[in-house]
Amino acid sequence: MKTIITKKNRDILKTLIVILIIWGGLSMIYSPIILPDPIVTLKSTLDVLMDDSFFRDVFITLKRLFIGLSGAILLGGILGLLIGANKRISNLFEPIFHIIQATPPISWLALAMIWFGLDGEATVFIVFIASIPILIINIVEGFENIDPKLIEMGNIFSFSKKQMLFEITLPSLKSYLKSGITIAVGLGWKLVIMGEVLSSSTGIGAQITNSRLNIETGKVLAWTIIVIVLGYFSQRLIDIVFDFRSKGENYDFANEQNRKGIRRLCSIKRFFPRY
Predict the structure, then answer these.
(1) What pTM does this model have?
(2) Looking at the structure, do residues 130 and 221 belong to the same domain, yes or no?
(3) Which pLDDT tens digit goes with each residue over 229-258?
(4) SS (HEC) of 209-242
(5) Are residues 146 and 249 both part of a single domain?
């Protein structure tokens, strides 16, 4: 395992070195206003980090991202479960999802600016509305790929709806939910910054706008690097949360450990019947 991690880190380091070399070469061709060199960008990044308003702007952006994603995960998760479990509900909501998916985020932002104004609510809205279909699609796909043998075994042993949900359905959907949240978080970072750049006077996006207006390209790149780092750590946080309780767990019926777990639950159900 240590060898694999070391090799991976070595490959990442090589990629970063190549990027820096290309970046440095291009900065020698273009003026600093167009593309400052990596050293200048590093100094600008340190200036941004030392600014008194840094943590305030990061907190504002994180709050907007969190509110938008939390609402999307909650509503998208509930709708995904309902749609995945009921074909009629799926047919009912399918046209709505197509409309939401086909609408460009910039159109949602323009509408949100009219509806909610320029105080940050528009940014929260576009993160929320754009992330819902991602969660729903992934959860519904998870329903379609639940091992039918698990469902068959649950029916044979007369599992209650609660047991079917918590012992078979939710564990089978875990990887799909993680995938949906991962994609939504990645998209959310792009949308929240775009929303702040175009509609807000606070947050990271607003600082990028101020740097652009002052022709401070180094600070634009500095804030961009900070967003990339924050996005990376948010993705790592998702991995930690999902791997905390059941690292490496697989709910495939072919897995012997899961078969034993199902059989153990069935045996308990036999000895303690419900009246």
Answers:
(1) 0.81
(2) yes
(3) 999 999 999 988 888 755 545 444 434 445
(4) HHHHHCCCHHHHHHHHHHHHHHHHHHHHHHHHHH
(5) yes
Average pLDDT over residues 194-205: 92
Specify whether 68 is located in the same domain as 148. Answer: yes
User: What is the structure's pLDDT at 247?
Assistant: 52
220 and 152 housed in the same domain: yes
Domain range for 87 is: 35-271
- 245 shares a domain with 138: yes
pLDDT top residue among 157 and 245? 157
| Statement: residue 10 has pLDDT above 60 | yes
The CATH number linked to 213 is 1.10.3720.10
